[in-house]
Amino acid sequence: MKKLLIQRYKKSERFNHWVVAGTFVLLAVSGLGFFYPSFFWLTNVFGSPQLARILHPFIGVVMFIGFFVQFFRYFKHNFFDREDIKWIKGIKHILLGREVGDTGKYNAGQKIMFWLMTICMVLLLLSGLVAWRQYFSSYFPIWAVRLALLIHSASAILLIVSIIIHVYAALWIKGTIPAMVEGVVTQEWARKHHPRWYRELMAKKGRDNLKKKQSVNQ
Asked: Which of 16, 46, 63, 215 could disulfide-link 51, Cβ–Cβ 3.0 to 4.6 Å?
C-alpha cells in the first residue's frame, strides 16, 4: 500500500539548509585546525593554511546569512508553550519511542536547539568581526581581540556539540533525514511526531480545497 506523503520543506528551504550545513562543516574543520595544534593539518581543507585563514571568515559570513534566512522563516514556530513542558517532563518516554504532548511543527528539543544555535551564531559573528585581521581587528584594543577569540572558540565548540546532537536526533527519528532531503514525510510520521502541526496542515488543505471548489462553481 502506497504511503500518503505531505510536504514539510520546500526546495528553497532544503537548499538553504544544506548551504548552512556545508559551510558549517568547512568552518568546523578549519576552525579546529586553528584552535588545536595537533589538528592544524585540517586547515588543508582549503588547499593551504594561508588560504584557510583568508577564506574562513568569508565563509562564516555566508553561513551566518544562510542561518538567519532560516531564522526568519522558522522563529514563529519555535516559541515555547505548555505542550513543550509536557515534552520535556516526558523525555524518558520519548527516548523509548513514545511521543508526549500535542507537538506543533517543532518539539521542545528542536526549539531548544534552535535558540541555542541562534545565540551561538550571533556570538560567532560579533566575535569573528572583532578578531577579523586586516579588516576590523585594528579598530579594537588587543584585550578586546583576545576576549573575542575566547568567545569565538567557546561558541564554536558549543555549536559543534549542538550540531552533533542535532544530527544524532535526526538519525534517531526515522523519517527526519528524508524530510530535509526530499521535502516530504508520511502522514503517519507527521501524525505521530507532530500531531498539532499535522492537524493544522490538514485543516488548511481542507479550506484551500473548499475555496477551489467554490471558485469553480461560481
From this structure: 46
- pLDDT means per 10 residues, the chain with 218 residues, are 82 95 94 88 89 93 95 95 91 80 91 95 96 90 95 95 91 86 92 92 83 72
Rounded-to-integer distance, Cα 65 and Cα 71, Å: 10
Q: Is residue 191 part of a domain?
A: no
Domain count, the chain: 1
Could you tell me which residues are beta bridge partners of residue 186?
Answer: 5
Q: Which domain holds residue 29?
A: 9-174
CATH (domain of 40): 1.20.950.20
Give me the active site residues, please: 166
Instruction: Mark out the alpha helices in the chain (DSSP H runs).
Output: 11-35, 49-74, 82-89, 91-95, 108-131, 142-172, 176-181, 187-193, 195-217
- Helix, strand or coil for residue 160? helix
Is residue 81 in a domain? yes
- Domain assignment present for 35: yes
